[in-house]
Amino acid sequence: MNGINRMNDTMKTIRTLAWLLGIGLVMAISPAKANVVTDNFDRVNDFTPGFQYLGTNWSNQTGLFSIVSNKAVNQVATSAAAATPYAGVNVGTQPFAVQAAVSTTNPTEWVGLAFNIQDTSNYYAVRWEQASGYYQVLKVVGGGLNLLQGGNEAYVAGTVMKIAYTGANAYTLTFGAGTPIGFSGGVSPYTAGGVGLFYSNGDGGGNITFDNFSATYAVPEPAALSLLGLGTLGFLGRGRRRG
Prior knowledge:
20% of the residues lie in helices and 42% in strands. It is an alpha+beta fold. The protein has two domains: 2-29 and 223-242; 33-220, Exo-inulinase, domain 1 (Jelly Rolls). The strands form two sheets. Strands 1, 2, 3, 5, 10, 11, 12 and 14 form an eight-stranded antiparallel β-sheet that branches. It has a six-stranded antiparallel β-sheet with strand order 4-13-6-7-8-9, with no helix packed on it. α1 packs antiparallel against α2 (222-242). The longest helix has 28 residues, at 2-29.
């Protein structure tokens, strides 16, 4: 009888392990839930010297941001490049996309997007200059700008600039309805981190403007993770009681 009981216990253990492994496999092959954040800046005009008015969803508002005619506008020159992240977003290591409509009223100003933001001195950015129509893919390291790729795209105010991470250190850049342009994050790539706005006023004057910002990224399913964890703990506890 003891031998039969032990055999039954072994079969139950195998079935339990198979059940837990099945849950893990389903979790591994199931797509992660998508999270979307947006800001169309449609709120009351607010511009008072010395204050920053994008709101609590935005951090590191270098220069002087304000809301003007339902757009985010930076009206004070910042000669150095700067990134303003959307607070609370971490894109993780899965594919993501970030986009915004961008404009600048000064020919030598740069406007664009920042992504994989590790902190305010280390991140990727794509910037676009009005006068030349030249764009640059940058890796910012310790505040220094490192050019990864560049090209020409005729400047049109209000164009939607979109960055998409497709996996394996590969990205695409799209201007409006144009053809996606592929690029790489280079050596020692940044992973995860935040996303947001990027700007550099160059010699100052004029405004840098953003509208209709959005970011889409994957987040883990906490319910599934909890189910697997509780099942594993229950199984281990059962085994200890039998022991």
